[in-house]
Amino acid sequence: MFQYIIRRILIAIPVLFGVTVFTFFVINMAPGNPVDMYVNPSATPQQIALAKEQLGLNDPLWVQYGHWLGQLFQGNLGFSYSTREPVTSMLIERLGPTLLLMGTSLIVAYLIAIPLGILSATRQYSWIDYLTTGFSFLGVSIPHFFLGLGAIYIFASKLELLPTGGMNTLGGTTGFGDTFFHMILPVLVLATGIAGNMVRYVRSSMIDVLGKDYLRTARAKGLRNFIVTNKHALRNALIPIITIIGMDIPLLIGGAVVTEQVFQWPGLGQLTIQSIGSRDYSALMALNLIAAIAVLVSNLLTDVVYSIVDPRIKYE
Amino acid sequence: MANLLDVNNLQTVFRTDKGEVTSVDEVSFSLKEGETLGIVGESGCGKSVTSLSIMRLLGKGGRVKHGSVKFKDRELTNLSEQEMRNIRGNDISMIFQEPMTSLNPLLTIGNQLMEGIRLHLKLSKKQAKLYAIDMLKKVGIPRAEAIINEYPHALSGGMRQRVMIAMALSCKPNLILADEPTTALDVTIQAQILKLMKKLKNELNTAIILITHDLGVVAEMADKVIVMYAGQVVEEADVYTLFDSPKHPYTKGLIKSIPHLDNDSSERLDSIPGTVPTLQHMPKGCRFHTRCPFATERCINEKPDLLQLKENESHSVRCFLYDSEQLDKDVREEVNS
Question: Is the ipTM of this complex over 0.90?
Answer without folding.
Answer: no
